[in-house]
Amino acid sequence: MARSRITPEREAELYEAVLDLLRTAGYEGLTMDAVAARTRSSKATLYRQWGSKPELVARALRHNKPVSIAEIDTGSLRGDFHAMVDRMDDCQMEKDSALMRGLAHAIHENPDLHQALRDLLIDPEMTGLDTLVQRAVDRGELPADNPALKYVPHMLVGAFIARPLIEDRSVDRDFISSYLDAVVLPALGI
Amino acid sequence: MARSRITPEREAELYEAVLDLLRTAGYEGLTMDAVAARTRSSKATLYRQWGSKPELVARALRHNKPVSIAEIDTGSLRGDFHAMVDRMDDCQMEKDSALMRGLAHAIHENPDLHQALRDLLIDPEMTGLDTLVQRAVDRGELPADNPALKYVPHMLVGAFIARPLIEDRSVDRDFISSYLDAVVLPALGI
């Protein structure tokens, strides 16, 4: 990959255009032609820099989340989880949840997209979450054999997707914060 | 509604055809013409009996779940939850989760479908779940002010949707059973 050929500003501008198109047209409706037109690039450049549409989409989504969860280290799992929420933005979460809804379907239809998202987005976030939880185990905050440990990602991802279906409302910081205190931490025995 | 004009067998056959078409063509691709052709009915009959495509789809999904959760009453919340899982079927759950994935997107695009699903499927299931939990509160199994009470639906629905995204596997009875014991019951303090 020769991504160094374009400036970081130009790269950010391009990713923003990809996310805008994803929100409005969906994954199927997003064409490399539209990205090229919108960003005044040539399709050849897009393919040379990103290889494929799934990788371009996965990198654009990854660009949205520049800070790794593993960098959070407040000294307690409760503190780490709430610091994670504090970094979120209500408006951004609403946009993210619209994107996720559209992508959940596209992922199933496009194995290449699923693989690219897994490599660039899902696995790194899961690893970051594991790091927070492992640190808590190492500090003695919770036992290594707590059966809820392996379900931390399910609890968090599930909350994001379930709320719009159940309550007709997208998630916001207040909801995630309350869910952490009522469900995630008690399930872990904290 | 004059649903009594057709036999229960015929009604079941029709709903099964609607669910098959939903799985293969998706909500957008499911047309009343296709349902009519597949079931050798006239479109006029379909509209007379069900009023609209969203209602037909919601009734077909509801037909899949003939037993109300509220009828489960084993004497303990742990028993009730596990009885709920025992009634499920691994193969059925895999089919349901394919349906839900397709519908999550369609719901967002079609407010009429969302309303019909809410009236016929989501609200009754939520009410059934509330009944189980309220009985446990009445028995003194858990305090009425437990902050996790209001998140029981989020925990359960979330587990169903999150597993395929995180683990690339649809849910089965073993997973839900383990999730109940590791997450849902401990979060409730049981």
TrEMBL record, chains A, B:
MF GO annotations: DNA-binding transcription factor activity; transcription cis-regulatory region binding
InterPro entries cross-referenced by the UniProt entry: Homeodomain-like_sf (IPR009057), HTH-type_TetR-like_transc_reg (IPR050109), HTH_TetR (IPR001647), Tet_transcr_reg_TetR-rel_C_sf (IPR036271), TetR_C (IPR011075)
Organism field: Streptomyces lunaelactis
DNA-binding segment(s): 31-50
Keywords: DNA-binding, Transcription, Transcription regulation
Superkingdom to which the source organism belongs: Bacteria
Domain annotation HTH tetR-type: ranges: 8-68
Gene3D superfamilies referenced in this protein's UniProt entry, alphabetically: Homeodomain-like, Tetracycline Repressor, domain 2
Coiled-coil zones: none
Name assigned to this protein: TetR family transcriptional regulator
